[in-house]
Write a structure and sequence with these properties.
It is an enzyme of class 4 (lyase). By secondary structure, the chain is an alpha/beta fold. It has one domain (17-211): Beta-carbonic Anhydrase, Chain A. It is built from eight helices and five strands, in the order ααβαβαβααααββ. The chain has helices at 17-33, 43-48, 69-72, 92-103, 119-130, 138-154, 160-178, 180-187; strands spanning 57-62, 80-85, 109-115, 192-199, 204-211. A hairpin with a 4-residue loop joins strand 4 and strand 5. Helix 5 packs across helix 6 (138-154) and helix 6 packs across helix 7. The longest helix is centred in the C-terminal third of the chain and has 19 residues, at 160-178. The radius of gyration is 18 Å and the shape is globular.
Length: 214
């Protein structure tokens, strides 16, 4: 089977938040169907990006090995700016990286990406139920995720996967609340922030929350 040709190496065209999300959805649909293009992964693309980058989205996702953004959205080199922490926990480094992508790279879309069977969320649920905290800096992760678990409990949610949805929604809220750079970009229509959950078995990514115009 012939491999698809590389995309033309043209000047960067700024996408709107809606266009960026549509491009991600289209790539994910190809991945789910098993008809991936594997774009922008050749030597020509690599050389083109040596002294510049123009990602059209930033993916703030969980560190889980089953959640590789470029694969599940059928993307290649230079397409997305990726920030990952276990349970997509917001810390100063993650927030600074996201602000960099918006303020300096002019990325029009931030995607908070969670997934079912999340180990970090599961560990937090176990800690809330048992009253015992894990050792080391794992405790820091659990402390960051605990508000989402408590909110889920208040809404009658107790299973892991629905709690993940709540945590993704809470993370999008916190990003907008904590970052003036991101909230200003949303107000100006330059950026949108959306929450997306990914189903491991099906490979499908679905939007569950959002700020900004799509």
């Amino acid at each position: 089977m012939n491999r698809p040709e590389a995309e033309p190496l043209a000047d960067h065209v700024q996408l709107t938040p809606a266009q960026a999300w549509r491009k991600l959805r289209e790539g994910n649909s190809r991945f789910v169907a098993g008809h991936t293009d594997h774009p922008n992964q050749d030597a020509l693309r690599r050389q083109f990006l040596v002294d510049k980058q123009h990602p059209f989205a930033v993916i703030f996702g969980c560190s889980d090995s089953r959640l590789a953004a470029e694969i599940i959205f059928d993307l290649g080199l230079g397409d997305v700016f990726v920030v990952r922490t276990a349970g997509h926990v917001i810390d100063s480094a993650a927030l600074g990286s996201l602000e960099y992508s918006v303020d300096l790279l002019n990325v029009p879309l931030i995607v908070v990406l969670g997934h079912d069977s999340c180990g970090a969320v599961t560990a937090t649920i176990n800690s809330v139920e048992s009253g015992e905290m894990p050792p080391g800096f794992i405790r820091d992760l659990v402390e960051h995720i605990t508000p989402s678990v408590i909110t889920a409990r208040r809404n009658g949610i107790r299973d892991v996967n629905t709690t993940v949805v709540e945590h993704v929604q809470q993370t999008t809220h916190r990003l907008v609340e904590q970052s003036r750079i991101i909230s200003s970009a949303i107000d100006e229509g330059r950026t949108a922030v959306i929450g997306v959950t990914y189903r491991l078995a099906e490979g499908k990514a679905e939007m569950v929350s959002g700020f900004g115009v799509l």
